[in-house]
Amino acid sequence: MIRKSEIHMHSCFSDGEFSPRELVAIARKNGVSILSLTDHDTFSGIPEFIEAGRKAGLIVFPGIEMTVKYGELQLHVLGYFKDLESIQTPLWDRVETMKAQREERMVAMIDKLNGVVPDRFQGEITFENVQKAAEGVLARPHLAREMVRLGIVKHTGEAFEKYLVEYNVQRENIHIDEALKLMRASGGVPVVAHPGERTYALHRPDKGIDYEDIPARVEELKALGLMGLEAIYPYHERTGKVEYFLKLAEDHDMIVTGSRDFHGFNTHQTPDVLGTTKMEPDFFERFQQAWG
């Protein structure tokens, strides 16, 4: 029997709808037994998540999704850890630095937006009010919600369509070799998230990188410490590329993972979506081997 899992999901500590405790409750209701919280660039929600998960009798372990720089690309790398105690100080401190960089980026973005929104709203967007909407790291969905509250846009989707894509501010992300070293030093299992997805991906035809170019990059990343590929993913399913990434993982002896990348309403997902990825829990056995 397939054991349900959800090992790529986000809470209100980054850009998700639900608290870590609420995510655990949803998972339990959905019959999910293997669970990891992977908020963007923060471990802030992990203590609440672990406590709630253990009380619910689920298999839970810490995770994170780090935005990294890889050559001309920006990638998302998931890191999975045996327990909270495994996360070493250098990684924890580096993540806290990334949180501060996100705040600097938010200030710059607010400055930009206050110059382009309709005149009557200029100066109305403040860092303090955006920060109130976030439990942990600041992300664009928090800014979108504040724009809805102010009446600048009718809904968060409109905020992205009209403003948050065009006036986005890029930050200098951690280099992938540093991220992989820090994760591995904490006994972590690093996995490239959604390698075929449109923006943070190894497949970037807009940059001249097509599918035939990916295997050499995976080989390079493996040498740097990468251990897995998130092959089973909604965008891969829609584009018919799950088998491609499964074969790529097999050819390079990578751990195969899969997820719904659950955020809640921020990505138009209802709670019943959490844990619906169809995959065997083989990945967890390999995680345990890596954790020793």
UniProtKB/TrEMBL annotation:
Residues 5-70 form the Polymerase/histidinol phosphatase N-terminal domain. CDD domains: PHP_HisPPase_AMP. It comes from the Bacteria. This is PHP domain protein.
